[in-house]
Amino acid sequence: MAEQHIIFFDIDGTLLNEEKEVPDSTKKAIADLKEAGHEVAIATGRAPFFFQSLREELGIDTYVCFNGQYVVYKGEVIHQNPLKSDLLEDLAKESLANEHPIVFMGEEEMKANVPDHDVVKESLASLKIDMSLEHDPTYNQGRDIFQSLLFCEEGEEKFYEEKYSAFNFVRWHPRSVDVVPAEGSKAVGIKKVTDLLDIPAENHVAFGDSLNDLEMLTEIPNSVAMGDGHPRAKQAAKYVTEAVNDDGILKGLQMLGLL
């Protein structure tokens, strides 16, 4: 058997195609990795309740979510890094004054600070998640919020970047950015997992495609960008594979000699 590796997969644009489906070749590749004794994990910007069915479908119980702010190893939470509550409260008031809605995301659910907003509905619909969004402008108060979604047009986040240096604003949709702690990233979350394991760094692998994957693709020794990914993701990665629907995961793993 080949030396044990740990492989982290982004979800949207990596495990899932544009139709939010896992290609059959990807399903088989992940099953084959596990059969060969490798550790398989997820590293995503999604909330844990956004991909429970995917974890169950693929049999994966180790994951980095909220872009690194919430980390689970074999079903046990090992790291939590919520947004600073006082600054988030201030940001929420500022964004409301600018007519930029926010969705607060906790461990188990999410709430919007405005009711029934078209831009919010449009952006979340692109994830194809079967989940209603309730209105609760005080949901951020008295509980941990690991990530927020700020809805603004491209370029408008610069105002918030200058005012809130404790947060990073990472665009995931033409009309929305993720708001995460400045010191947090998928790479930081991944290190919380790899520090627990006796797997040398040269056997760490990551697949991604987007702007929230840049730190992960830069820092993981064997990083692979999807062929239809963001140009900056491809620039950051050590390798580039084919697109999701062109057996990109399978071909990337074959490129690395893991399958």
UniProtKB/TrEMBL annotation:
Record keywords, A-Z: Hydrolase
GO molecular function: hydrolase activity
Signal sequence coordinates: none
Pfam families: Hydrolase_3 (PF08282)
Domain of life: Bacteria
Name under which the protein is recorded: Cof-type HAD-IIB family hydrolase
Source organism of the structure: Oceanobacillus kapialis
CDD domains xrefs: HAD_HPP (cd07517)
Organism lineage: Bacteria, Bacillati, Bacillota, Bacilli, Bacillales
